[in-house]
Amino acid sequence: MANIKKNRLKDEVAFRRFLPLVSITLLGVFLLMFLLRINSNFATPFSDDFSQVLTNRSHAKQMLSLPKQTEFSLQLEKRNQMPPRNLDLYPSLDEDHITIVLYVHNRPQYLKVAVDSLSRVVGINGTLLIVSHDGYFEEMNKIVEGIRFCQVKQIFAPYSPHVYPNSFPGVSPTDCKEKDDATKKHCKGTPDQYGNHRSPKIVSLKHHWWWMMNTVWDGLKETKDHSGHILFIEEDHYIYPNAYRNLQILTELKPQKCPHCYAANLAPCDVNARGEGWDSLIAERMGNVGYTFNRTVWRKIHKKTTEFCFFDDYNWDITMWATVYPSFGNPVFTLRGPNKCSTLWKMWFAPGPGGGKKHASITVW
Ligand SMILES: *[C@@H]1O[C@H](CO)[C@@H](O)[C@H](O)[C@H]1NC(C)=O
Ligand SMILES: *[C@@H]1O[C@H](CO)[C@@H](O)[C@H](O)[C@H]1NC(C)=O
Ligand SMILES: *[C@@H]1O[C@H](CO)[C@@H](O)[C@H](O)[C@H]1NC(C)=O
């Protein structure tokens, strides 16, 4: 366990070293193009009307002057318009359902377990599960296509760098990498303040998160009028059977028990947290795991698009903590239930003997 944490810490340190890699994110570039095009007031380029503009896809594409889409990207976009699967088994959604959004990249070993855990969640058959994919991976796709326990809809980010193997927004052959000197290496790219060039795979985490948020709140006909909460989880989350019902209770209690809370959450086990074992609800700082909020909160976040996109960091959560939440004026709290370790755990596959995946054992921490 300690070892895992140490390794994890090492990974994180390595990961943080990449921090400077993304001075202007891809999305920032899109935004900039957009700003230059419409030549609008820089400080407040996005009104709430922007989401309405975005619902006219061809109009939005013209305005953003996005890179030319590949045939495959167009196919994925078309697929995003398909109705949810399993409508025959679950023709209607519960009145008070909380939509669940599971965002994934390419870790089938984790996703299998996450989906298996979801299949046992009480109440899941009354809601819609949206799986948001960063890139198209056959093995990931197969797992999601096998889901029979609720309505399920897959969406694929059409401008994921994983969908553009050898051109922007992916890596072009002429791109500079890491700390390349553009003149010496005859490559293209503008390094950030630390001399690092763009790394599409890394920036993609933040871009996908922002695309997914915009798409589920404002872009999909299944959810754009959803008046309740949306829960966001990831492929390495193990969800307990009581999670969904607990969350429904939490969101219901939130207005009375914690009117200043922005969200409810299924926090993972953290033995160092204060208040462990309290027989009461707990308000804590907004986290990045199992968070759930409503459209009012999304509108507040969306108003800070410029801040989000131009902040020099590729982590969506750090960007939120550094730019968006502080702009709300009050400390941003989230409400969680008393049994801290019983609704969501983060998974970690430890390599088995010889480091082989076959013998991997699963640890939750
Ligand atoms: C969407 O935008 C395109 C391009 O600007 C325009 O021609 C079309 O009329 C718009 N469609 C709707 C339904 O507003
Ligand atoms: C959903 O599952 C519950 C058991 O957890 C069952 O009682 C209920 O009939 C199911 N509803 C649908 C629509 O399948
Ligand atoms: C959404 O949540 C916020 C924060 O808890 C709350 O102030 C607001 O009234 C809620 N909006 C709706 C439509 O329920």
Automatic annotation (TrEMBL):
<keyword id="KW-0333">Golgi apparatus</keyword>
<dbReference type="InterPro" id="IPR029044">
    <property type="entry name" value="Nucleotide-diphossugar_trans"/>
</dbReference>
<dbReference type="Pfam" id="PF05060">
    <property type="entry name" value="MGAT2"/>
</dbReference>
<keyword id="KW-0808">Transferase</keyword>
<keyword id="KW-0812">Transmembrane</keyword>
<keyword id="KW-0328">Glycosyltransferase</keyword>
<keyword id="KW-1133">Transmembrane helix</keyword>
<dbReference type="GO" id="GO:0046872">
    <property type="term" value="F:metal ion binding"/>
</dbReference>
<dbReference type="GO" id="GO:0000139">
    <property type="term" value="C:Golgi membrane"/>
</dbReference>
<feature type="binding site">
    <location>
        <position position="134"/>
    </location>
    <ligand>
        <name>substrate</name>
    </ligand>
</feature>
<dbReference type="InterPro" id="IPR007754">
    <property type="entry name" value="GlcNAc_II"/>
</dbReference>
<feature type="binding site">
    <location>
        <position position="236"/>
    </location>
    <ligand>
        <name>Mn(2+)</name>
    </ligand>
</feature>
<dbReference type="GO" id="GO:0005795">
    <property type="term" value="C:Golgi stack"/>
</dbReference>
<feature type="transmembrane region" description="Helical">
    <location>
        <begin position="18"/>
        <end position="36"/>
    </location>
</feature>
<dbReference type="GO" id="GO:0006487">
    <property type="term" value="P:protein N-linked glycosylation"/>
</dbReference>
<protein>
    <recommendedName>
        <fullName>Alpha-1,6-mannosyl-glycoprotein 2-beta-N-acetylglucosaminyltransferase</fullName>
        <ecNumber>2.4.1.143</ecNumber>
    </recommendedName>
</protein>
<keyword id="KW-1015">Disulfide bond</keyword>
<keyword id="KW-0735">Signal-anchor</keyword>
<keyword id="KW-0325">Glycoprotein</keyword>
<keyword id="KW-0472">Membrane</keyword>
<dbReference type="GO" id="GO:0009312">
    <property type="term" value="P:oligosaccharide biosynthetic process"/>
</dbReference>
<feature type="disulfide bond">
    <location>
        <begin position="258"/>
        <end position="261"/>
    </location>
</feature>
<keyword id="KW-0464">Manganese</keyword>
<comment type="pathway">
    <text>Protein modification; protein glycosylation.</text>
</comment>
<feature type="disulfide bond">
    <location>
        <begin position="176"/>
        <end position="187"/>
    </location>
</feature>
<dbReference type="GO" id="GO:0008455">
    <property type="term" value="F:alpha-1,6-mannosylglycoprotein 2-beta-N-acetylglucosaminyltransferase activity"/>
</dbReference>
<comment type="similarity">
    <text>Belongs to the glycosyltransferase 16 (GT16) protein family.</text>
</comment>
<keyword id="KW-0479">Metal-binding</keyword>
